[in-house]
Design a protein that fits this description.
- An eight-stranded parallel β-barrel has the order 1-2-3-4-7-8-9-11, surrounded by six helices. Strands 5-6 form a two-stranded antiparallel ribbon.
- The chain has two domains: about 350 residues, Luciferase-like domain (TIM Barrel, Alpha-Beta Barrel); about 60 residues, no CATH class.
- About 50% of the residues are buried.
- By secondary structure, it is of the alpha/beta class.
- The protein is globular and about 75 Å long.
- Strand 8, helix 8 and strand 9 form a beta-alpha-beta unit.
- It has 16 helices and eleven strands.
- The model has no long low-confidence stretch (mean pLDDT about 95).
- Bound molecules: flavin mononucleotide.
- The site of flavin mononucleotide has 23 residues, from strand 4, strand 8 and helix 12.
């Protein structure tokens, strides 16, 4: 890593709908509706590249939120993140409208095959010149299982055990084309057959023979993102992630978790400075404090209770409509929660001896509301003071910026916050290179460098 002063990594937190992770954002009068066209995504991409963002990142899930009351009608009517288009065409469209911005999408290790994901992301990486990133998730709920031919989502730790082997297969395939394998001598050989290898993987959960069908990519291999929040999830993130996304409530909590995660990375024999940790935050900025507060009030007014219940049910894989709002959960019900276990554990821990109710889950997690992540609201100076405090503590190496209006949040950020960050030397004025690895300050990936 370089000796230059640390600068923040900036990531935009997107959905393939006209909302952010904050459902209410689609209702914001300033949000655009043309999300079924490439225009919408390309406009965001150009804005982010103007603001020297490192990465545009899309969250995903393989089902709409339909666990609440075991039905989808209310979620569809509420626009509760029910549209989820496949991310690869979106990322390609955005990549063709930009030349430096990194582009990342979420694909599940539980519902896809490793060969498929390896092929999709290395193809994308070629098409956009070495700027692709894969957010590795093991997925969350039974609705995803039902869409992919299973009755139930596989158990939490089993998913991660399978995902560890999954990564070996994906990275293994990515390593099977040596540099120089392509010759393309029209009078002679297309490729050097001795430089393309079969993986021949036969493991506990996966078999995949190869040879892989996509040559090595401009950045060696796509960047890997992970965002596990449970103990097992964090271990997985520390094992494989180049970028790790997290949810920290405040500076003291973030500082302790940041250090623990970096220590875990080091204990696995990896260089902690080669792994960047970025918490999700909201930024609402205005030319004056009053304007910023007004924007926040508009954003808060777009929230509905159903958003909260739909997302809690989806994330925790439990129907939050099946219980009266103040009735305590039973031990068996808490045990049955197989989705976001770290979220469940935090609520249970904060309630101490008392069993939490639906209302407790709503209030403590803030899911579906702006309280889910820290909100930095004010003028550019005020917002940058907070970003700087987190970055310098250190709580993080950068941020995953969630939006309250699409694409207005990012336009405001680029116009107002970015110049102030740059003035303080906290943020890049120019991209360092063209590939995402270069721009993140990561070395070109080498064959086998992930094996420890
Ligand atoms: C910024 C951020 C983005 C995330 N994006 C996704 C996502 O796209 N899909 C998903 O299923 N989970 C997403 N998560 C959740 C985690 O990736 C992970 O799946 C979840 O925390 C469950 O794993 P765990 O039990 O280890 O916590 C995200 C978390 C954060 C903090």
């Amino acid at each position: 890593m370089s000796d230059k002063p640390r600068q923040m990594t900036m990531v935009a937190f997107l959905q393939a709908q006209n909302c952010s992770n904050y459902i209410g954002s689609w209702r914001n009068p300033a949000t655009q509706n043309d999300f079924l066209t490439p225009r919408y995504y390309q406009r965001i991409a150009r804005t982010l590249e103007d603001g020297k963002f490192h990465l545009a990142f899309f969250d995903d899930r393989l089902a709409m939120p339909d666990r609440y009351n075991d039905d989808h009608v209310a979620s569809v009517e509420a626009g509760a993140r029910v549209v989820k288009m496949d991310l690869i065409p979106l990322l390609t469209a955005m990549g063709l409208a930009t030349s430096k911005l990194g582009l990342g999408g979420t694909y599940s290790t539980t519902y896809y095959q490793p060969f498929h994901i390896a092929r999709v992301f290395s193809t994308l990486d070629h098409m956009i010149g070495g700027r692709a990133a894969w957010n590795v998730v093991t997925s969350l709920n039974d609705s995803e299982a039902l869409n992919f031919g299973l009755e139930q989502h596989p158990a939490h730790d089993l998913r991660y055990d399978m995902a560890d082997e999954f990564m070996q297969v994906v990275l293994g395939h990515w390593d099977t084309w040596e540099d120089g394998a392509l010759i393309m001598d029209k009078q002679g050989r297309f490729g050097d057959g001795s430089k393309v290898h079969r993986l021949d993987h036969k493991g506990e959960y996966y078999k995949s023979r190869g040879p892989f069908t996509v040559p090595r990519t401009p950045q060696g291999r796509p960047v890997l993102i992970q965002a596990g929040q449970s103990g097992r999830g964090k271990h997985f993130a520390a094992s494989w992630g180049d970028l790790i996304f997290c949810a920290y409530k405040n500076v003291p909590m973030g500082k302790a978790n940041y250090k623990a995660l970096k220590d875990e990375v080091a204990s696995l024999g990896r260089d902690p400075s080669s792994v960047q940790i970025c918490p999700a935050v909201y930024v609402i900025v205005g030319e004056t404090t009053a304007i910023a507060k007004e924007k926040r009030a508009v954003a808060e007014a777009t929230m509905r209770d159903l958003d909260r219940l739909a997302l809690l049910s989806e994330g925790l894989n439990f129907d939050f409509g099946s219980k009266p709002i103040d009735e305590p959960f039973t031990d068996a019900e808490l045990e049955s929660i197989s989705g976001l276990q770290a979220l469940r554990d935090r609520v249970v821990q904060l309630k101490g001896d008392v069993k939490p109710s639906v209302r407790d889950f709503m209030e403590i997690t803030g899911r579906g509301t702006l309280a889910e992540h820290p909100v930095f609201c004010g003028t550019a100076e005020q917002v940058v003071d907070e970003l700087e405090e987190w970055f310098s503590a250190p709580v993080c190496d950068g941020f995953v910026l969630a939006a309250t209006t699409m694409p207005g949040t990012y336009e405001d950020f680029v116009r107002l916050v970015v110049p102030e960050l740059q003035r303080r030397g906290l943020y890049q004025k120019e991209y360092r290179g063209t590939t995402l690895r270069e721009n993140l300050g990561l070395p070109l990936a080498q064959i086998g460098d992930w094996k420890r």
